[in-house]
Fold this sequence. Notes:
48% of the residues lie in helices and 17% in strands. By secondary structure, it is an alpha+beta fold. It has five domains: 5-44 and 111-228, Calcium-transporting ATPase, cytoplasmic transduction domain A (Distorted Sandwich); 47-102; 234-303 and 683-895, Calcium-transporting ATPase, transmembrane domain, CATH 1.20.1110; 308-334 and 539-678, HAD superfamily/HAD-like (Rossmann fold, 3-Layer(aba) Sandwich); 345-530, Calcium-transporting ATPase, cytoplasmic domain N (3-Layer(aba) Sandwich), CATH 3.40.1110.10.
Amino acid sequence: MLNRWHAEDREVILHLLGTDPARGLAPAESSRRLLEHGLNVIPEPRPPSAGPLLVRQFADALLLGLLVAAGIAAYLRHWVDCAAIGALALLNGLLCFFQERRPDRALAALVQLSAPSARVVRGGKSFLVPAGELVPGDLVELTAGVRIAADMRLYAAQRLFIDESPLTGESLPVGKDPALVLAESTVLADRANMLFAGTRVTRGSGTAIVIATGMRTEVGRIAQLLGEVVAEPTPLRKRLAELGQTLFAGSAVVCALAAVAGRFRGADGAAQLQSLVGLIVASVPVGLPLITTAVLAAGVRRLGRRGVMVSSLPAVESLGAITVIGTDKTGTLTRNEMAVRELLLEDETLAVTGDGYAPEGTIARAGRIADPRAWETLGIALRIGALCTSTRLEQVEGGLWRMVGDATEGALLALAAKGGVWAEDLAGEHQALAEFPFSAERRRMTVVVTGRGGRPLALTKGAADVVLAHCLHQRTAAGVRPLSPADRERILDRAEGMAGRALRVLGLAYREDALGADSRTVERAMVWVGLVGMRDPPRTDVVAAIAECRGAGISPVIITGDHKLTALAVAREIGALRPGDEAITGEELDRLTPEALGACIERYRVYARVTAEHKLRIIRAWRRRGHLVAMTGDGINAAPALREADIGIAMGRGGSEVTREAAAVVIADDSFVSIVAAVAEGRGIYENVRRFILFLVAGNTAAAFALLGAAIAGVPAPFLPLHLLLVNLVFAGVPALALGLEPFDAGGMKEGPRSPRERILGGASAVVVALQGAALGGVALAGFLLAWRGGAGSLTHARGAAFAVLAVALMVHAFSCRDRLRPVVSLNPFAARWLLGAAGLCGLLLAAVVQVPFIGQLFGTGALTRGEWLWVAALGVAPLPVVEILKALLRNRDVG
Length: 896
């Protein structure tokens, strides 16, 4: 029976579940079923175990290298080096640990949807029970304000409306009808005889039969899907892991070469171990996690000022790598404001102007304003729109108008007001007698009011084909005439043409002397009035945003619960379709195997009438094709897909709490334009991250080359481990942070997305960075040898000189790293505010470390003379021509 309850008659449901419609279940039977089915709860999520997660952080190759270096320093009784290296390793490990260890807040938000209690009928008595004790077969009483505690089949209802927005994202309450028996293929959002856990009664009352509890409910099914989705590392985490492995391998090679050189020269074991500690520290960019976190946090703040909230720091960079954006239609691509655009009355088309729900605009007939007082058919059409409704328009502060109720009915009310017909003015003339509400099965709504002479007048609106089927006559220019088969075909053709232009089409009809106690007698032999075409217009700026996506190599695809024709029309209007692109429905998706879907997924740009499972399949199919996918959503049925996508994007206005917690990004204004702006920010952040990483690696390579060169030359190490930590954290770290915070090129969206498999350090870039590092390390070693052998200074003095040369060279090199390809002379140095500040700060710190006696004693450096500072500065600038030549070679290679 799973997922077939909506396709069975309510009496059959009672029989299947053994429920008495008057007495409910017997208390003993409910107790037995509770043991059989378990509590009606969704289990609370548990945070990941701290122990394994912490161990995993320290299993990183570079952190392991630091721990080994700290252990060797302890063996040599170099306690200061041991403490400093160990503290940095611990800090980096804990930073990654706390970024990863957080409970599953999306599942926690799902748990919060649970109702605390429910009123049930058991043994003929009505009483409250904890919601967790509900069992299949329980008869539940419903009133306004009650949260639905389990999935139920509706048994009886009086004007019952349910807020299903937490589940489906539908912003308006939906009417329910217990008498309906729906097709088995009916999608969840159209199951008007069902109630679902986590939704809420907004109006009316009724009774319902529990058919599923706990993890067997729709909410439980979504919780299970969420739990099955395994979050993969973001592209940045993958690239940083690859970088760590590369640096570890390079460090191992350098250490091996140094060991061979030391053995060949007969160096003692302690000296070799000390050299090994230095080489390990030199090879590990210890400031990388801290700087990356700071740069991504700065990106989060910039996006926050644009109304884009990011909950996961790596997601900031990942935004720039996406190649597909799966977006909802309503409210994201469109304004979520219905407005009537056309009327078809007496075979004439009338144009309607005005946006939103404000009663401002015109109804034009052949270019002239149409008067409903002079044209009876128009007057009837406007009265149907004003009276056949449960919605109202109201004016709020600032003179703005808003709709309270259904968007379609709000559009009809605004249409009537544009013609001077107000529902409030009609209330005295037309007293309400009866109402037959809209439902997914009926697809129409009828109200009965007092008409001429107090006689009952039925007014109907609904799907054009359904309303037309209940009509025998039509209003024409010659009066009321019978409807012929040709008339019906012509009307339906016109309705289809309007739908093809992205209009939602309604039919209008009425009947005088509408006597009868039920809809079957009232809604017959009606008079056809005409068609209304309305639309939710695209946002004014979405066309440009879609074009920007196209230019940036990103494919926007529409994934919506709306109808296929409507979604296709919107996609064409906003430019989201290219020649050859197609649309597919959820029902058609069900007929495709995973392999077949994967083979044809890139043909489709519109996915209509889809469920939570469909969204997951679509995302997985695109990802299997090698794409990085961003997915938007608002209802909790979108939460698994948001978790599965590389970047989940929730809507801030109408999105559920579950969706916001499942997503990495929340868009405050629900606009596609904000998503595109976030992608541009992500691309810029990636470029900043890459530039500071390449700078850091060049600095680490420089220190490693200097130490290796000293080992091969048989001279003492030019740096102590403490020097290398200071260089890593300050004289490379501060300029690297500045590079990460510098403004980035706004032209990033004019290029295609980078490959998801692109390495930060690979190919020609790796060779260039290695040569740049060799040049920087070479001048540092030259400074050491010049001060040690060329002067009268001690080893401490020489190490101070080498330290100063490397620090100056790194500061100069940072300005060259502002752009990977362009020459430094083409870059305005005064535009680099962060970098100028970093250079000034590093200059002051360098002078303090080298020249202030007690600081120099702490760090193992000696003061330099004025003359020595001059050649330190000269050596620091010396690598710049080499670096620029390497950039030119790389630039010519890229152009070629």
